[in-house]
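[job 0412] stage=complex_fold ligand=D-glutamic acid status=START
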Amino acid sequence: MTHNINKAIGIFDSGIGGLTVLKEIIQRLPKEDTVYLGDTARVPYGTKSPETVTRYSFENTSFLLKHDIKLLVVACNTSSAISLKQIEKTLSIPVIGVLEPGAKAALKATKSKRVGVIGTEATIGSEAYPDAIMKLDPGIVVIGTPCPLFVPLVEEGWTDDEITLMVAERYLNPLKREEIDTLLLGCTHYPLLKDIIKKIMGDGVSLIDSAQETAIEVERILSEKRILRESSHKGSREYFVTDAPGRFINLGERLLGIHIDNVKQINT
Ligand code: DGL
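[job 0412] stage=complex_fold status=DONE, emitting structure tokens
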């Protein structure tokens, strides 16, 4: 399958959040070309019904497939939780969601076998994280908590703000009482709140960043399928958004410290 090596990795998210996953992929695999689709016109997915999330996820997938990609990354936790299994069934290229890599890492990290998961309402409501973790080890207790205000707080740029700290305390204190030793950050935006979450949960709780774990999994699968770029190529970046690109570029650059250009607005 050597002819596939030069194709790009396709990545979609409901908006800017998936850039946390893209950033990890770029850092780990700088030679790979990437095509990113942010569905900025229809974000957030985290408050929508499973039917709507699945319809959007399929439309995003179809768009990226037209770019002849070699692997698809469903960077949105909500889409991964709700629609990944259905997407996988319809594609002939490898598909990686953000759930399983995080679940595997949580399993490795926990000693007490008590794991917390935070995410959007839709992700936590789907029970997809407990399912994924308990499939690997039925003895693990998984406690899920939705943290719906985290996404707008991150998008407001308040990643290091006392208001965010107060909100986080409100969400996380009940989880602390559950005596978990591992906490899975099950949403694209939450790695940007790592410092605040760490402050509340303390050193005794390992934080699992699904974005990082997903990039590791992307490398593993590309290498296993022998479609990992080895040459001295410098990876190209292409971005598509469904709303005007201004906010995507500003927010993405400010929050993630990556340069964003080559952005086109499309209809999925
Ligand atoms: N990308 C979403 C996720 O990871 C968060 C934003 C949204 O609700 O769409 O679940």
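The pocket of D-glutamic acid is lined by residues 13-14, 17, 43-46, 76-78, 119-120, 123, 151, 187-189 (CB under 6 Å).
[job 0412] exit 0
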